[in-house]
Amino acid sequence: MDSIATSPAAACYVCGTAGFPIQTGVTDPDGAVPGEWAFRKCANKECGLVWLDPRPLESELWKAYTAYHTHTRDHTDKAEKLALGLANRLARTVLVPLWVASGLWRETDCIRHMTLNEMPAGKLLDVGCGGGRFMNRMRRRGWDAEGIDFDEKATGKITRRYGMKTYTGDLVACALPGSSYDAITMSHAIEHLYDPENTLKECLRILKPGGKLVVVTPNADSMGAALFGAFWRGWEPPRHLQIFSVKTLADFLHKAGFNINEIRTSSAGAAVIYRVSRTRQEKTGGQLSFLFRLWLVFWSYWKELAEFKAQKSGRHTGQNLLACATRSLGRAA
User: Fold this and answer.
1) Residue 289 located in a structural domain
2) Phi/psi of residue 224, nearest 5 degrees
């Protein structure tokens, strides 16, 4: 990847207020796109959005995904990969009693099913469906699952592998039938969107009255972002065009017309982010030893548990944001 054409984004695209730099010197964690990137935060306290500056031109954004981690092979040595995999299983086994006692086990299962565990099965659309594992998981629970993604390779693979219906491209441009879905999920998708506001409005239109939208996305105010700075995996430039907080995500949902049932932070799955972020941070000093990477597996799970416990004090510092919203029963399509 030689270059991606960009345009400066010094002002907030929501309210037009100038932004101030909150993180500079951020690089693509996948190493596919060269250069350093920066993130700004809106100076308007009534807004507070965090965004990428400069931003790739919308017509150029596809380049950032040609060597994305979802499309490339893991080149780790097979023996080393096996050992790290065994360490991962051991760490999870050892910590199971603590996860169960703390409630993290229940939280992890909740996020795995995007909070739809207790909801009667119906018609589901997964926006940003990737490889389709979530869709298949929900199909096994009785859901009629469909998916949409910009990546034609991903949607084609889902159809061939699972036989489930998929759409390729932008949700708004697809113009799906109104009032047709019982639930819509967006797991780590909204931060990639050039126009999240209109996408949320489209989600409202195609949901049935009383239908549920569930959004999971990185948290700009997370403990990981504060700890790792430019090495935090959640920045992920230039694919993450904006990073939300509890407030800014709630503002977008309200503006789109949703009723918010719940919005909070979650630590489920944070171990991966801690592990990758710490690896990137330590690699600046040279290659990491195998023993260090083994230790890092256990350390990352311990950090996930510690972060989860910290959320009980009411602080919105978990790795991800979780928002559940519904379309009003009386709202017209």
Assistant:
1) no
2) -65, -40
- Domain hosting residue 145, numbered range: 113-267+318-326
Cis peptide before 120 (omega within 30 of 0): no
Q: How far is CA 215 from CA 108, 190, 201, in A?
A: 15, 8, 14
Looking at the DSSP bridge assignments, the partners of residue 42 are 19
Backbone φ and ψ of 308, nearest 5°: -60, -45
Give the Cα separation of 237 and 132 in Å (integer). Answer: 24
Q: How far is CA 232 from CA 24, 26, 140, 176, in A?
A: 12, 9, 34, 36
Residue 261, domain member (yes or no): yes
Q: Read off the pLDDT of residues 19-52 as tens digits, 9 standing for 90 and up.
A: 999 999 999 998 888 889 999 999 999 999 999 9
Contacts of 211 (CB under 8 A, 6+ apart): 181, 182, 183, 184, 326, 327
The residue among 68, 78, 59, 69 whose CA lies nearest residue 5 is 59
Total of domains in the chain? 1
In a domain, 288, yes or no: no
Tokens of 216: 């999971």
Instruction: Write the pLDDT tens digit of every residue in 273-308.
Output: 999 999 999 987 778 888 888 899 999 999 999 999
For residue 225, the tally of other CB atoms under 10 A from its CB is 25
- Within the chain, residue ranges assigned H as helices are 78-102, 104-112, 133-140, 152-162, 171-174, 196-206, 223-228, 246-256, 270-282, 290-310
**Residue 287 burial (C-beta neighbours within 10 Å; 0-12, 13-18, 19+):** exposed
Domain CATH for 240: 3.40.50.150
Question: Is residue 12 domain-resident?
Answer: no
